[in-house]
Write a structure and sequence with these properties.
The longest helix is centred in the N-terminal third of the chain and has 15 residues. Strands 4-3-2-1-5 form a five-stranded antiparallel beta sheet, sandwiched between helices. The chain has one domain. By secondary structure, it is of the alpha+beta class.
């Protein structure tokens, strides 16, 4: 899905935004992440964007995984899973701007309970996880 340089840039950006793990409160060493959904965040796509966030809130992971819309000329809403060294999984919702000098930011996050975390983790292939 990403080239090596993009992986590094994504990891660096996640580290910049998070500083510490929301699940364990420690630094992000030995943590990993996977992007598992993305959708265009524009005024013309309000309905789809609302569906995206509703599916995330409901932990409807199969529906969320269907969102693979990207347009380099529009902002994006991205869903990441962060795997903590403690075994917890964190859902990260990130705003990724198309503007070159505008930084991404975390809109929300949730430390998932054991069952929701297992369900999401089961949908992410082993080769999709990247080290932070």
């Amino acid at each position: 899905m990403f080239s090596k340089k993009q992986e590094d840039a994504t990891a660096a950006e996640l580290r910049r935004m998070l500083k510490v793990c929301p699940a364990c409160g420690a630094n992000l060493n030995n943590h990993s992440y996977a992007i598992f959904a993305v959708t265009v965040a524009s005024g013309e796509r309000k309905k789809e964007l609302l569906e995206f966030f509703q599916a995330l809130k409901a932990h409807d992971w199969r529906k969320v995984r269907q969102f693979e819309d990207f347009d380099p000329l529009h902002n994006a809403a991205e869903a990441f899973a962060l795997k903590c060294v403690s075994g917890s999984l964190v859902l990260l919702m990130v705003r990724s701007p198309f503007e070159l000098y505008d930084a991404s930011n975390i809109m929300d996050f949730e430390v998932l309970d054991g069952e929701s975390g297992k369900e999401l983790s089961a949908l992410i292939e082993a080769d999709e996880w990247r080290m932070l």
